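[agent] plan:
  1. take the single chain provided in the ticket
  2. run structure prediction with default settings
  3. attach structure tokens to the ticket
  4. add a short note for the reviewer (M.T.)
[agent] executing step 1
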Amino acid sequence: MELDLDRQEHGRSEIDIDGTLALDLGEGTPETIALNGQLVVQNLESRFLLNGTLRAVGRAQCWRCLGDFELQWEVPVEIMVLRNVDTDEQESETLLILQRRGVVELHESLRECAVLAYPQSPVCSSGCQGLCATCGVDLNRESCACRQEDYDPRWEGLPG
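[agent] step 2 finished; step 3 output follows
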């Protein structure tokens, strides 16, 4: 996942992204992901703008039932490569790379985009029932005999 500054066409073009990245976010999250899609590259006078939305796929753990599943999510990408290293460019939400010539390695910038877009609480399906709070059985696979009470003693002091 590279961008060759010296061979990139002037104006607008596209580059294909297809590879794997290590996320290293911790337990229950994908160690590596497959990342693919296309980015639009705009080669302007002193800068390159890369933007688009990529697709990430990796094995994750459901936050409700703790089962492993294949997680897919969209990764919005907005990266600017400045060729004028002595710039006064202000900070923005766009990732900024300073490099005059040669090949720009995009792995770390794309990893950062994937991490920022990673779902906060990934679930295997919208209908996942999770685990029983009392006995811990996976409610997607079997039911339990635990008594579910709608009564919460913390509300006793409130007027009825």
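[agent] step 4 note for reviewer: The helical segments are 107-117.
[agent] ticket updated
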